[in-house]
Amino acid sequence: MRIFFILCALLIFLSGCATTYQPEGFTGGYSESQLGDNIFQVSFRGNSYTGHEIASDFALLRSAELTLQNGFRYFVIVKSVNDSSVSAYTTPSQITTTPIGETYDIAMPSASNTILCFKDKPEGDGIIYDATRVTQVLKKKYRITDEQ
Asked: How far apart are CA 102 and CA 85, in angstroms?
């Protein structure tokens, strides 16, 4: 299993592209689970070229889209986790050029939100997100079109 992750990380490292906003696949993306009528867990996993801000923003964007897709307008993040998985890749050694392989640490950021959704704006002091506004702002920021 470790070999698989190292090979995946190497492929991503060599391809040189950050994970795009997409459903989860080989190079990362978003996923979600419905935990209740109005409770969802949303995650985004990036590759080594994806920054932490992008991972957090894409988890927030998916939270907003999921809110709207399920007939709600507002959401509150009740739990947020931002993390990175780190693996190392060592290049093979070459007798004539590099007798010792070089080691690269590869960090892949992820972000996860547990959200509570509402049809009407709830009362409270916490941050209440308007899903429509979040979607507009983040799609503009990352130049994401509905056709993607």
From this structure: 20
Q: How many Cα atoms sit within 13 Å of 31 on the Cβ side?
A: 9
Burial of 33 (0-12, 13-18, 19+ CB in 10 A): exposed
pLDDT at 11: 47
User: Mean pLDDT of successive 10-residue segments in the chain (148 residues)?
Assistant: 48 63 92 98 94 96 98 98 80 69 82 98 94 98 87
Q: Which two tokens stand for residue 72?
A: 């709600």
Quickly list DSSP for 130-148: EHHHHHHHHHHHTT--TT-
User: Which pLDDT value is given to residue 118?
Assistant: 98
Sketch the domain layout of the chain as residue ranges: 2-141
CA distance linking residue 52 with residue 84, whole number of Å: 8
Among 21, 8, 87, 93, CA closest to 50: 21
Token match 């399920």: residue?
Answer: 70
